Amino acid sequence: MTDSTRAAPRLTPDRLNDETLLLLPEEVLLPEGCQTNQAVLVAGGRFQEVGDAATLCSRHPELTPIELPGQLLMPGLIDTHHHLTQSLGKSLVFGEPSEIFKRIWIPLEASLDEELLHLSAKLAALEALRGGFTTAVDAGTRSAADMTAIARAAEETGLRCVLGMICNDLGGGAGDSDPEARAAILQRAEGHLARWQSHPLVSPSLAVSIPEVASDAMLHAASALSAEAGVIFQTHVNEHLQAVERSLVARRQRPLEHLHAVGALGPQALVAHATLVTPDELNLLRDTDTAVAFNPVASSWKGNAVAPALQMAALGIRVGLGTDGTRSDGFRLLDAAETSQRLAFGLASGDSSCGGGWRWLEQATRGGADAAGLKGLVGEIAPGLAADFLLVDLEVPEMTPSWDRPWELVRYASRDQINAVFTNGRLRLWQGWPLEWDGRALLRRVREAAAAVREAPIYRVHPEASEHRARSRGKAMIAEALDSARRQHHG
Questions:
Q1: CA triple 132-420-15, angle to 5 deg
Q2: Residue 330's CB: how many other CB atoms inside 10 A?
Q3: Is the Cβ–Cβ distance between 243 and 268 less than 8 Å?
Q4: CA–CA separation, 274 vs 238, rounded Å?
Q5: I need a surface site. Which of 192, 350, 405, 410 has the fewest CB within 10 A?
Q6: Tens-level pLDDT at each residue, the chain (491 residues)
């Protein structure tokens, strides 16, 4: 960019509110990497043209170009595994042993009425957008309240949402459900698919929490129904050692083997975690073209293992990145993905690259769209796709000078650099806060309503941090007193 371009008027959100925008950013993140001297034309909620800046400006003399010096225009990030209705619990799970869903998430979600469901989803949507995620795949809620509350939160915030409906028909263990109950669930599932199939922001999905809580017939039917509707079927699989062993005891099959045996794997399937996988199970994922949501922060915070994401990619398995509702900070997720592979696999094998930086950008954008069943709709800055994108400030010390922008985005970039978040061509957030609704008022409502969470029958194994510190200090004081007594005795 020239000095005259850098002298362009200071960017303000009012300049980005037109339905038609001819944007001239410093850089554009395209599939082949970050490119300069590019222009992006947005109209009707979609990218209309992407190409040489001078050419596009001359082709559209009726438009006033918006110069964006020091800004990177990049695709919005895609969270391929989220729990939007767990945001009211957040740090309740910190320091807890695995399978927290039994002790914390099931009782918490079951306690949510429609208002709390909406508040939780809206809070999670705001966090996601602030973190650079323009799409989140929701794995489904155990609340009995109307799921429309979640969709309403997506509409109000502008978050694109793949909305899962849980189809569990068992309480756990091997067996078969009542055929009438299963038929009723599948009838609701068909209604869910029909209701959201043409929504501008919400796409439907069917889900089973984990394979052991659905009958074989339900696993097969829900996956087949998803394939027929052209949407994804979601489930958690091979995440915790306990679940793998329960499946082996009950069925003599590991969870992924179980899904394959009942015909639930395939291009429509998105399995979350897949951290404890054997070579044979990796082959099953590859051969069935099943996608994986890789959740590196979840592995760090409460998992038993790290998914071999690089090996999956090398085998041709489709992989997207997911937060699992841990923290909705997109750039920190990229860093966690690369770091987890480096610590779990790269150090032992001498792999100093661990994806070369670009791999994690790919899985968070175009690869994530593919895994989420949204390929051809989002994930790239390309003509015809929905205009879901970010404007990221490049003029920060951490990214100056720039020698390798993809690596810098993975290791240096911060949520604080995100100036603007767009979905369907509309400006949703400016410097971290919504423009069309009061984000801080939402926080006040959440603080007031969250007291209801304390009434849920949640069981935590470990105390809160302050109590933990006090106990540790108490132990240290006792040890010090005993040591002093021993010294006096021997003295």
A1: 165
A2: 28
A3: no
A4: 5
A5: 350
A6: 444 444 556 778 998 999 999 999 999 999 999 999 999 999 999 999 999 999 999 999 999 999 999 999 999 999 999 999 989 888 888 887 778 878 887 888 888 899 999 999 999 999 999 999 999 999 999 888 899 999 999 999 999 999 999 999 997 544 567 899 999 999 999 999 999 999 999 999 999 999 999 999 999 999 999 999 999 999 999 999 999 999 999 999 999 999 999 999 999 999 999 999 999 999 999 999 999 999 999 999 988 899 999 999 999 999 999 999 999 999 999 999 999 999 999 999 999 999 999 999 999 999 999 999 999 999 999 999 999 999 999 999 999 999 999 999 999 999 999 999 999 999 999 999 999 999 999 999 999 988 877 777 777 777 777 887 787 777 777 777 777 777 777 76
**Domains with residue ranges and CATH for the chain:** 77-377 (3.20.20.140)
Question: What is the Cα 126 distance to its own chain's centre?
Answer: 13
Phi, psi of 351 (to 5 degrees): -90, 100
Alpha helices in 267-355 (DSSP H): 279-288, 296-302, 309-315, 330-341, 347-349
Tokens 């869903």: give the residue.
101
- As a residue count, the chain comes to 491
In 3D, which of 124, 125, 184, 177 has the Cα closest to residue 155?
125
